[in-house]
Specification:
CATH topology of chain A: Arc Repressor Mutant, subunit A
Helix content of chain A: 55-70%
Order of helices and strands of chain A: HHEHHEEH
Oligomer: homodimer
Number of domains of chain A: 1
Number of strands of chain A: 3
Amino acid sequence: MMNTTKAAKIFKALSHPNRLELYLEIAGNQESNFEPGEECLITDIIGALNIGAPTISHHLKELSNADLITTERRGKFLVARANRSTLLEVIQLLGIDR
Amino acid sequence: MMNTTKAAKIFKALSHPNRLELYLEIAGNQESNFEPGEECLITDIIGALNIGAPTISHHLKELSNADLITTERRGKFLVARANRSTLLEVIQLLGIDR
DNA sequence: TATATATTTCGATAGTTATCAAATTATTTA
DNA sequence: TAAATAATTTGATAACTATCGAAATATATA
């Protein structure tokens, strides 16, 4: 269920430039490929963003805790996917459509 | 212009439960009254939320810095109004509509 | 099995911030 | 003008967090 506490947590997850960039990278890669098989590989993102792997790991956990993404290990790699529904719910709370 | 830095700042402004509550109070009061004269009086909010006036003042400044609200002094009182357009812009950045 | 690669955990640090009490400023009203 | 009300500023503190390097773990591959 969505409430202000949960919503604040979601916004917090998106409140840091690097972490927001990370989320957009994950959400963006997802939408640019229609194949379900072409998810976002974290190892590629680490190269693109200018922060170390430990920090990426930390950020991923926060995005995951906020239900903004899901992650899945595929062999040696980590695959991330964006949860559009979480974003939709929190936007509804803001009542932007009224 | 909207970019990730600006967007992160907006999300940060909404990332604290009390401040989000404050924003929703401002945005909510606004929509419940159609008269432009019936804005949201801060003095009423201070009674409703469980935090002191200095903290409210601090939060208002952050919401204002993020362009989420505008404030105006009316005599002894402060009046707040929500900026819907800022919210719309940041939602567009998230690409939820694609 | 030994090495290489990908990610996470740990420990530490520097910077940020939500909150309050006290004092101050702005405005109205008695 | 004096007192009351509304809001802000100041100064302090406790809690949080983004980041890193180093070490540990997981997995694949030579």
